[in-house]
Amino acid sequence: MPALAGRNHSATAERPARQLTVANLLQQYAMDFVLKHPRQAVPQVQSTLAKLSLCRTAALGGRKLQCPSCDHQAIVYNSCGDRHCPRCRGAKRAEWLGKTEELVLPQVTYFQVVFTLPDLLSPLILGNRRATYALLMRTAWRALKEVLREEQGIEPAAMMVLHTWNQELDHHPHVHTLVAGGGPSLDGTRWINTRHPRQRRRKKPYLANNRRLQEKFKEHFCDGLKRLHRKGLIEFEPPVLPARDDEDRDEPDFSEWTDRLVQRDWNVFIEAPPENSQPEHMLKYLARYLTGGPIADGRLISHEKGEITFWARGKNKSAGNQPRRFTLPGVEFARRWAMHILPKGFTKTRCYGGYSCRHRADYLQRCRQLLRIVEPAAELASEPPLEDEPLDQPRACPHCQTEMICVASPLRPSWRDLFNKHATCPPWYQPSLSISRNASPRIRGPDSIGSSCSP
């Protein structure tokens, strides 16, 4: 399992008295980012940044609370509810964690498998995110399913979460996968724990042949890229790869370019659970970055003279991979953060095999029967918290500590109405305008900017 990113005590000690937040930094540098990088400020990116700028402000309205004892009144502004917002969707993370914990069974060892794409693929993926992200998750599952069925003879199941960043906020697409170290046999008559095919007495937990899994993953992914390119579903001009001694430095066609990618090493990492660790720990780690973007407020250190410093682990893991200070200009910080805004409607967490929605209930029931686990008692479903209400919002009156009650709750205005109003719409938000790839945006006024509609 990953080295879970807990709060760094040194980071907390060195943070200034005034708390830095990612949301405030993005609000401050959104306009500069859109002006400097118009091609990357596509409508989806502008829309997300605009929602963040209005989150928990008077523009979105709110609920009016009143104390029944002293008549003290307060207004709790609505949140934007966008999944990328650092200040929202805590209830969604808690709901996802509650549902996902139902997949974890006692007496079973759980592994984390991380499928990572090479850096050479980043330009292609950034230009074709929806197709390539879906291909990444689909081919990772296909490789895992084939290896576990052929090598261990079990019916596999997996839960995957897509991450697109590293600690320095660079583009680094990879998938975290929760996989059980066992499962029903292919004929469904017995439970099989995964074990090394030759070292029967091996004490260290074992899932599958890592090398074989890596080869299958890159083979399926490159074949999928060729198929998408052949059907015209992705656009890309292959860059020149470093030439070998026996060939010229020429630019290959797409098929040849992907064939040469297969010859390189790809990173597939299988991690057994550390000692004294539970599967719920990894689920909580994944839930932390399910919504809210690639960096948490707790990693921020300072913001001085237009530069933002935060804690990040370096790419060189041989140096102990300890957190270090990492500084970016404010505009570059906003650009890297916006690079991880997912395409509209894209699902970043998916379940496959026995964990899929269609087969989950039957699969878990068969697992419990084979493991002789008593079925859990049905629990009364508690009412979920309001989506727009922050989880940490106090309800007590600041004067008499009496619980305040809601006396007015008007409907939140639609985004269409908000973005059409000059008073509430951010001055830089105009995604309907477009610019050519070779031209810079023309600023026709303080509230006008062009944007590119290409990925």
Specify the overall morphology: globular
Give the count of structural domains. Answer: 2
Helix content percent band: 25-40%
Q: Return Rg in Å.
A: 25 Å
Give me the number of helical elements.
Answer: 12
Q: Cα distance, first to last residue?
A: 33 Å
Looking across the biggest beta sheet, what order are the strands in?
8-3-5-4-12
Describe the protein's architecture and organization:
The protein is an alpha+beta fold and 455 residues long. The relative contact order is 0.21. The protein contains twelve helices and 13 strands. Strands 8-3-5-4-12 form a five-stranded antiparallel sheet, with helices on both faces. Strands 2-1-13 form a three-stranded antiparallel sheet, with no helix packed on it. The chain is globular and about 70 Å long. It has two domains: 167 residues, no CATH class; 220 residues, no CATH class. The chain starts with 8 loop residues before the first helix and ends in a 36-residue tail after the last helix. Helix 2 packs antiparallel against helix 3 and helix 7 packs antiparallel against helix 8. The longest helix has 23 residues. The N terminus and C terminus are likely disordered.
Which helices and strands, and how do they pair?
Layout: H1 9-14, H2 22-36, H3 43-54, E1 62-66, E2 73-77, H4 90-100, E3 110-116, H5 122-127, H6 129-151, E4 157-165, E5 171-180, E6 182-184, E7 191-193, H7 210-230, H8 254-262, E8 267-271, H9 279-288, E9 300-304, E10 307-313, E11 323-329, H10 330-338, E12 349-353, H11 360-371, E13 405-408, H12 415-419
Antiparallel strand pairs: 1-2, 1-13, 3-5, 3-8, 4-5, 4-12, 6-7, 9-10, 10-11
